[in-house]
Write a structure and sequence with these properties.
Elements lengths: L1 E7 L3 E8 L2 E9 L4 H9 L9 E6 L9 E2 L2 H12 L5 E5 L4 E6 L5 E6 L8 H10 L24 H13 L5 H22 L5 E6 L6 H10 L3 E4 L7 H13 L1 E2 L3 H4 L13
Parallel strand pairs: 1-4, 4-5, 6-9, 9-10
Antiparallel strand pairs: 1-2, 2-3, 4-11, 6-7, 7-8
Length: about 270
Amino acid sequence: MQQLGIDIGLISVKAVLLEDGVERWREALDHEGNIPDALRALLGQCPSVDAPRTIVVGGAGRHHLRVEKAIPPQAIEAALAAIGERPDAVVSLGGESIVVYTMTTEGRIREAISGDKCAAGTGEFFRQQLQRMGLGLDVLERIPDETPAHPLSSRCSVFMKSDCTHKLNKREATKEEIVVSLAAVMASKVVEFLTRARVTRGRILLVGGVAQNRFLRRFLGERLPGIELRTPPQAACFEAFGAAHLAGTHGTSLPPVAELFAAGAVSFDRYAP
């Protein structure tokens, strides 16, 4: 049996396909506000041979689809059960949000602490600053581990962007050092949220695309010495992975692409780039 999990996030769409309980395929694609076209392109890459049982998770975007729906906490619980993890907390690091889920010893979510409305310290802000410097996310693979971080104003995204520009113009920092400094700010945000959630010890799972940032993980390890941090292999598509496992018992068959999108779903007018 094939099971498909789809996660429609604020920045990207992600999908994971299971076959007889084993992950066969996963992929993510930025939707740039055009969820239907991005999802069509993503599903065009899926190696499914029939109509898999499907569940979609995410925000308002999930209402576009004519398949069974779930919310991210349900998918996270299913993903944790699938990989046999019982952490004390899960930190979901998305493109525009940070959410800390505190967990019970039975692997259920007790409470969710979500982010404030400021973009400073989020994954999309990080990517935008890289683009302003003419860099891509692949720069993280080339920066030496010992690259230092500089203090940045983190009161809001406007001040932080100005601070980055000032340090570059004054040659007080290199582009690589700015990248590492931004990762340090992101780590500070995570620590702030964990403090609000009263998580000071135990084991924490980092999930979401931002969790792939090795400098973020380094700074978190330095600032949280009493906590064991783990990033599972499924981290980048964790909610989609959990939705795929949920689909085995609660999913509905994926309709043809021409019939996938619900008529009258909430959307926005779109303009050329």
